[in-house]
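@channel anyone free to eyeball this complex?
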Amino acid sequence: MLDKEGIAKRIAQEIQNNYYVNLGIGIPTLVANYIPKNINVCFQSENGLLGMGPFPSEDAVDADLINAGKQTITMLPGASIFDSAMSFGMIHAQKIDLTILGAMEVSEMGDIANWKIPGKMVKGMGGAMDLVASAKNIIVAMQHVNKEGESKLLPKCSLPLTGIRCVKKIVTELAVLAVLPEGGFKLLERAPGVSVETIKKATLGKLVIEGDIPEMAFN
Amino acid sequence: MLDKEGIAKRIAQEIQNNYYVNLGIGIPTLVANYIPKNINVCFQSENGLLGMGPFPSEDAVDADLINAGKQTITMLPGASIFDSAMSFGMIHAQKIDLTILGAMEVSEMGDIANWKIPGKMVKGMGGAMDLVASAKNIIVAMQHVNKEGESKLLPKCSLPLTGIRCVKKIVTELAVLAVLPEGGFKLLERAPGVSVETIKKATLGKLVIEGDIPEMAFN
Amino acid sequence: MMNKKVKDAESAIFDIKDGDTLMLGGFGLCGIPENCISALVKMGVKNLTCISNNAGVDDFGIGLMLQQKQVKKMIASYVGENAEFERQLLTGELDVELIPQGTLAFRCMAAGYGMPAIYTPAGVGTEVAIGKEIRNFNGKDYLLEMAFNASFAIVKAWKGDTEGNLIYKATARNFNAAMAMAGKITIAEVEELVEPGGLDPNEIHTPGIYVHRIFQGSNYEKRIEKKTITK
Amino acid sequence: MMNKKVKDAESAIFDIKDGDTLMLGGFGLCGIPENCISALVKMGVKNLTCISNNAGVDDFGIGLMLQQKQVKKMIASYVGENAEFERQLLTGELDVELIPQGTLAFRCMAAGYGMPAIYTPAGVGTEVAIGKEIRNFNGKDYLLEMAFNASFAIVKAWKGDTEGNLIYKATARNFNAAMAMAGKITIAEVEELVEPGGLDPNEIHTPGIYVHRIFQGSNYEKRIEKKTITK
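replying in thread with the prediction:
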């Protein structure tokens, strides 16, 4: 079973050379720490920055330089600043190669719910609806089950949707799964020490298992 | 009867303090030379400049700094540069107070034709269709009759239209006329030494004459 | 040319009245028009509709206006981090319309570009699409979203000149640039106000034609919401 | 980060083939991609559809491509100042679609912003409106105009870095900025190419994400169409 860092580490393997990547809040933010040295990647922050660097040192903190999670950050050489309209323009024009975000629920059709729990949480969708409606490739980073032990991989989302038929891949503490175009979660990899049986039990939506399922490889 | 400079001089009187103005090619360009000293005006050039200044001195000529008529120009202090999309954005959002342009024909409904003579001239509409479709206030600067002596103020335009129901005022070598909302050219002023009879003869569209028509005043 | 300089925030917002619709620039607390918000609180104008990406925090930004119950309706994309906001929302004192962040930006831009409406894929298949026109282009569905129509846009820039030209700093540009274009009256507060000629025309983000009033603000707190540093 | 630098115009345009649709930046002869145009002429690629505000003059700019009969169709807003163009148009060798200048700019911007189409008032009631959908918003008619879908955008900037970030100079920005966002492949030629960090992120007009290949051009003629000076 993976911890959050493990999930981030596994997702980092999905990033290819010269990718422009948008990272959501939470586990996705951790992915930046595990990019292989030989991979060029450029992080976009949808509040208006390409070329986001690490957190600043104490004396380099600038209130005018934050990421979409409102954290103080830095810019790498070659960074560029733009306004919110152009930022979502490049998102909608599919210039971002990969979007990694968290979810409360994912359906076997690739629908995603991550912005609202009626009567309980109303923070708003922020840029998530734009990202999921436009991204070429979306990977969801999340726990396989919620705090009540209920599966978050469902036949159909019960929470208000953020977007439909958009999630391509899911990485949880238990497994890597692809969402099949015709519907269904195809099990690709098991987390170290996790059995297929465990994943079956934790998955309420249609799970597709073909042949032997390898364990995730980390190096 | 006015010459081109006279038409430009009369139109300059229409410019109010703090106006943003777009000047078309031809007579409109001359208007800039007659702005009263006490009037603040800012000229927009639709290729991407606010705060257009006079033509440069020989040693200040810059190939990267031209107006929409492709003439080399200068920038005044406080000028700003923007791209073509934003330029037409501000035009469509009606941020320009006054547009002055030439015409081949104007109809008594305020339609304008100034971009094409079928089989004879196909230069294109450039920015004219955008300007006439969006301007709050459009003044046409033109000769009252064409080279064949035919009136250019018509019941209906015979040439392909640039825009409909948009011209508010017309200044020619003979007269100043307003286009009435219900249709018709209302005669406002006569050029020095020009009789109402002369204007009547030169106007094919409906001409509305009420009371005494004053002669244009220049100072 | 033009002189759009006014003395201070009070003189810039003098004609904002009860029931007006305001756009307020900023993302979180980054790049918010601090001086104008203070002046609006002092002025006590009520029943406002505020269009802003966020609603500030409890005791800063738009949160200060919420405390004074000056806001009737909030149009935003993300409103976490604000307990008073949540309270007013749950009690029904506050009307809230949550819209996708890109939709918020594009509806501003549409207003500034004279576009009556734009098409966006954001929200298709979700509750955001309810009651909206859906149209398919090239096999993909889009929602028709209308341009905003706000009486005032209030933005914060880094540098400005008396012609109204604006330059923003780093990610404090965010919604300020699109909103500056979108107000029927646009008010800009800047950290440094210079004379015409003091800014490079090539570096201007918002041309002065979009700005109606400008002043040099003071005492910027620039509060940081989530200070994160490398250990 | 990324390195988008290529050696020269030839290596930048190597995969442009007969029948492709190209956007070419510039207004008149101001800000045109001189190096790429020369390379296209040398390459001899044919049956091109060119989207450009103008068509150059007889012996410069896109005029050079017209001379070699490389252009099958031209989408432009203004094509005066070009006798060879007029000849090809009148003989029917050249297919020409004239569209309003704002429409040209917005159709580029729409492509760069992922908008399938935009509404514009330009051309309502004229022959430009023929066959197009007209829609009334708030009492005013607008035409629905589709985003461009061009295989290549070829632009000219003043400065650029190897990440593809671009800064234009003065009115040479014109259509270059909107077109740079609109190509499936965007090629930029610049007068000065620097390493990452050599440009101020705050002053960049086109973020590198929109640019796929960049090179430092040479021997810019920057011909002036109408030199006008104050006596």
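from a first look: The CA atoms of residues 58 and 83 of chain D lie 6 Å apart.
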